């Protein structure tokens, strides 16, 4: 997997921000995603998955991963959010699309390297 990144540095920022990335494989960044909006949608998705978890263990696992991703998104931690979104799997993507939380669906898909 080859990565190309460009960084910019601002005296106000404690660390560099990725301004452009060409990645082969799953996205490691949610820099272009509003984490507050994502957290709100993940909360809706988590509730939905919890309602389905009683009869479907895959939904239970996805719901747990989404809950953890929601927590990290609320803290503004994009890289950890990506890692947790990956664990939601295709069940998480499908459920997100089913209930119309498109920002969450796109973020989960990107974290897994799906279109």
UniProtKB/TrEMBL annotation:
Entry superkingdom: Bacteria
Name the record gives this protein: Uncharacterized protein
Species for this entry: Fodinibacter luteus
